[in-house]
Design goal:
280 residues; alpha/beta; eight-stranded parallel barrel; 43% helix; binds 3-methyl-2-oxobutanoic acid; methyltransferase
């Protein structure tokens, strides 16, 4: 049957069908989210914060993303897998950007790549699409520029910033992007962008009017008690506490002798045991 086509997403938008995207970075979680019915998985550079222990996405490398994309692709059959292009893998040199995007498809097995930025990356997006590399855009609070923004602040709040964001979204669509992530912008602005584009908008902290939503898996699963993403992250489970409780129970049972029992052990036949006893 193969993976979902990126072109389906535009059809879904035309039909008014909303959809969810989620991040995943490894084999078990990618398998689980696909089994749950997710049509599109992002191997985001949020990898840096939620899996690799960095305090931003900036240190993530091409090799990190290729490695994790391969695991996600091995785990899935149907979902579109989008691989994030890490900081400085596409900003410095367009030829290097093309080679890096190619690596994510050839070595990683991704269906598409995602790049942060507006009009300044439009020529690159066009070149990638012409070369056969599907591109997802990303506007608003683009985490790779967090140092430039001076923190995680809502973007597009002034008339000029909002107009630029709308123009950037249109330019990305014209360059051939198949979807655009809108991160941490006012909901009415996300609505305007969504109404003006034929390609789907995928919101995170962009309100309810986008065609789709994306969440960071570890935030929605409640893996961390002390990671405080902006208010757009919703917890659907508290797995951090559940994992700690399970490991504590295991430690107690090992220390107290309650695990393992006969149920978890392997027996030997009586004759072999008698032979061994005789042999001394
Ligand atoms: O890296 C990531 O997880 C992302 C999403 C927040 C859109 O870019």
């Amino acid at each position: 049957m193969g993976r979902l086509s990126i072109h389906k997403l535009k059809e879904w938008k035309a039909q008014g069908r909303r959809f969810a995207m989620i991040t995943a970075y490894d084999y078990p979680t990618a398998r689980l989210v696909e089994q749950a019915g997710i049509p599109i998985i992002l191997v985001g550079d949020s990898l840096g914060s939620v899996v690799l222990g960095y305090d931003s996405t900036v240190p993530v490398t091409m090799d990190d993303i290729v490695y994790h994309t391969r695991a996600v692709v091995r785990a899935t059959e149907k979902a579109i897998v989008v691989a994030d292009m890490p900081f400085m893998s596409y900003q410095a040199d367009p030829n290097e950007a093309m080679r890096n995007a190619g690596r994510l498809l050839k070595e990683g097995g991704a269906t598409a790549v995602k790049l942060e930025g507006g009009s300044h990356i439009v020529p690159l997006v066009r070149r990638m699409v012409e070369a056969g590399i599907p591109v997802m855009g990303h506007l608003g609070l683009t985490p790779q520029s967090v140092n430039q923004f001076g923190g995680h602040k809502v973007q597009g709040k002034t008339p000029a910033a909002a107009a630029k964001l709308i123009a950037d979204a249109r330019a990305l669509e014209d360059a051939g992007a198949f979807a655009v992530v809108l991160e941490t912008i006012p909901a009415p602005l996300a609505r305007m962008v969504t109404e003006r584009l034929a390609i789907p908008t995928i919101g995170i902290g962009a309100g309810p009017h986008c065609d789709a939503q994306v969440q960071v898996l570890h935030d929605m699963l409640g893996i961390y008690d002390d990671r405080r993403p902006l208010k757009h992250a919703k917890r659907y489970a508290v797995l951090g506490a559940a994992i700690r409780d399970a490991v504590r129970a295991y430690i107690e049972e090992v220390e107290g002798g309650a695990f393992p029992t006969a149920e978890h052990s392997f027996e030997m036949d009586e004759a072999t045991l008698a032979e061994l006893a005789q042999a001394g």
